[in-house]
Specification:
The protein is an all-alpha fold and 223 residues long. The chain folds into two domains: 12-138, Tetratricopeptide repeat domain (Serine Threonine Protein Phosphatase 5, Tetratricopeptide repeat, Alpha Horseshoe); 142-220. Helix content is 78%, strand content 2%. The chain contains ten helices and two strands. It has helices at 11-17, 24-33, 35-38, 43-60, 63-80, 90-104, 108-121, 126-138, 142-172, 177-220; strands at residues 84-85, 88-89. A two-stranded antiparallel ribbon has the order 1-2. Strand 1 (84-85) and strand 2 (88-89) form a beta hairpin. Helix 4 (43-60) runs antiparallel to helix 5 (63-80) and helix 7 (108-121) packs antiparallel against helix 8 (126-138). The protein starts with 10 loop residues before the first helix and ends with a helix. The chain crosses the membrane at residues 147-167, 187-206. Keywords: Membrane, Transmembrane, Transmembrane helix.
């Protein structure tokens, strides 16, 4: 039986492995300081450093830079047909975190697009479906904006009625105080109903839209 040959690792890779996985800032600094040499490593070493760097950018909140580098990682995953990394589907993880970075950068259209891409790949990714609902709720349609505008107007009118009631009606026209109070409460209630109703309808529509999309994705997969 021939002797087992130990796997050789480059000096850069050995130096990288001395850094704790949780020390994201040091990983980022190491990668950016050695990027030229890292790109020349064997794929296995290069990919591990790239993934650690991309993960570090996300963890410390460098989301704009993460969005640039996660595209590089996704490209490598697709080109090299990498399915699993550290026991999980690497493409799904990258897409999910890409969507999260878009969300945190307030790029809701891009977040929506990325999550739909992920759901098409895995229609049973429940976290992606839930995140898609959250993203779409942020993309308020015009009727929600109108409902909010109506509620603000109603609250302002209610405030004016209160001022009118306190300064004029109760001191001088107490007989009309009950009617003014009822009108003030009615206007305030209208504002509340407009706001809450608009948000609830939007939330329901989003839920229906996402669930229908997931069903279509599952049907396309034959699931």
């Amino acid at each position: 039986m021939p002797p087992i040959q130990p796997t050789y690792h480059s000096r850069i890779f050995r130096d990288f492995k001395e850094i704790e996985e949780s020390n994201h800032r040091r990983i980022i600094h190491f990668y950016e300081g050695q990027e030229g040499q890292i790109r020349g490593l064997d794929f296995e070493e290069y990919f591990e450093l790239l993934m650690a760097y991309v993960n570090g950018l996300f963890e410390v909140g460098y989301h704009q830079k993460h969005l640039l580098m996660v595209e590089v990682a996704i490209g490598e995953v697709i080109a090299q047909n990498v399915r699993l990394y550290k026991g999980e589907d690497v493409l799904e993880r990258l897409l999910f975190r890409k969507a999260a970075s878009h969300y945190r950068c307030l790029q809701y259209d891009a977040c929506d697009h990325t999550l739909k891409e992920l759901v098409r790949i895995n229609p049973f990714h429940t976290d992606a479906a839930a995140f898609l609902k959250k993203c779409l709720r942020r993309k308020e349609p015009r009727f929600v904006q109108h409902a909010k505008a109506l509620s603000i107007a109603a609250f302002l009118v209610a405030a004016l009625v209160i001022a009118f009631e306190v300064l004029l009606v109760r001191p001088f026209y107490e007989v009309y105080a009950k009617d003014v109070e009822l009108s003030r409460n009615g206007v305030f209630a209208l504002g509340c109903l407009s706001l809450i109703g608009g948000l609830l309808i939007h939330r329901w529509r989003v839920s229906q839209k996402v669930e229908a999309f997931v069903r279509r994705a599952r049907a396309a997969k034959g699931a």
